[in-house]
Write a structure and sequence with these properties.
The chain is of the alpha/beta class. The protein has a domain at 2-45 and 91-154 and 249-314: FAD/NAD(P)-binding domain (3-Layer(bba) Sandwich). The protein has helices at residues 13-24, 49-55, 92-102, 142-147, 207-212, 217-230, 278-294, 308-318, and strands at 2-9, 29-33, 46-47, 66-76, 79-90, 107-109, 115-118, 121-124, 128-135, 159-168, 176-180, 187-195, 198-206, 242-247, 256-257, 260-262. Strands 1, 2, 6, 7, 8, 9, 15 and 16 form an 8-stranded mixed β-sheet that branches. It has an 8-stranded mixed β-sheet with strand order 3-5-4-11-12-13-10-14. Helix 1 (13-24) packs parallel to helix 3 and helix 1 packs parallel to helix 7. 40% of the residues are buried. Mean pLDDT is 93; it is low at 315-322.
């Protein structure tokens, strides 16, 4: 049996942030992840200045691809609205590996299937044992599935499904673009330049509305690809998109059961308006660590539910808003 005071299941931004904070305070902690690092992770890779602050690094200290986004072009029903901003785009292939390595904690490559509680400790697959357990395994996190879903099952109306692809494209670059509600899509599509010739393109939509209309996300993807071709943003690319799913932030929240806590997508924290996930994931991991360290309440009151203010803050500052 492999013992640790704390086990974090999932080494993404939420899990790594939690593990790093716990390690720095002197706790014995380890991460278990079903995949190795680096790994391909479907994600637009948008991060805010608040993420840099929470993770305690400056723009010039990040050793990999960090593209500053100075404008975001919003498209609503054929109307383009360019908005000045200060955001960043990262590649999850690089970002997640960097985060997990900087934790300085042991990383085990293992897919957790069963969890039980015995004698005040958690037993994972009869192999790992701990006193505190943090679920950071994304939407299908086994910690959530075992201890939280039976009490607070998630509602389908908050489920977002996506198709996206990240690839090297020698004509990439330019501004970040977001298209809302194109051809009745109950969501939005995006084009995010990543720097060093990489771009990420994708679509995301509410699953319940797609289902109710007997619609197809793939149909919307095909139309989106045609738009990218027609506007000259991506030409002659042989697409091979991947899908993933996540949940939007809802209230009330159940985030802790005794010594089991959930963070990031396992807790369903993506912002309601933009589906931003990395910022809430990082902040939730740090807050969960604080609750364990101080023996206090685990609350996400300081995690924003909306992203719009973050995007618009430079514009509001110019207009004299505080």
């Amino acid at each position: 049996m492999i013992d640790s005071e704390i086990i974090v299941v999932g080494g993404g931004p939420a899990g790594s942030s939690c593990a790093r904070a716990l390690k720095r305070y002197g706790f014995e902690v380890m991460i278990i992840d079903r995949e190795g690092f680096p790994r391909i992770k479907p994600c637009a890779g948008w991060i805010t200045p608040a993420v840099l602050q929470d993770l305690e690094f400056r723009e010039d200290e990040y050793p990999f691809t960090l593209e500053r986004l100075r404008h975001i072009h919003f498209h609503f029903f054929g109307i383009r609205i360019p908005v000045p901003t200060r955001q960043y785009a990262i590649r999850r292939y690089e970002f997640d590996r960097w985060l997990v390595e900087r934790t300085g904690v042991p990383l085990y490559h293992h897919r957790v299937r069963t969890i039980r509680k015995e004698g005040g400790r958690f037993i994972l697959d009869d192999t790992y044992r701990c006193r505190f357990l943090v679920g950071a395994g994304g939407t299908s996190c086994p910690v959530r599935r075992t201890f939280f879903d039976p009490l607070v099952p998630r509602e389908e109306k908050n489920l977002i499904v996506t198709l996206e692809e990240e690839f090297s494209y020698d004509r990439g670059g330019g501004a970040c673009r977001l298209w809302f509600f194109d051809h009745g899509l109950p969501g939005y599509s995006w084009y995010v330049p990543k720097g060093k010739g990489f771009v990420n393109v994708g679509i995301g939509a509410k699953f319940s509305r797609i289902k109710a209309r007997n619609d197809s996300l793939r149909r919307h993807w095909d139309r989106f690809v045609e738009k990218l071709e027609r506007q000259g943003l991506v030409k002659d690319h042989p697409y091979n998109p991947r899908g993933h799913a996540y949940y939007l932030r809802t209230f009330p929240e159940m985030l802790r059961r005794e010594n089991a806590l959930i963070v990031g997508d396992a807790a369903g924290l993506a912002t309601v308006d933009m589906g931003e996930g990395i910022g809430p994931a990082v902040r939730s991991g740090i807050l969960a660590a604080d609750a364990i360290i101080n023996g206090g309440t685990y609350s996400l009151n300081t995690v924003p539910r909306y992203s719009a203010f973050t995007i618009l803050s430079p514009l509001l500052s110019r207009a004299g808003w505080k």
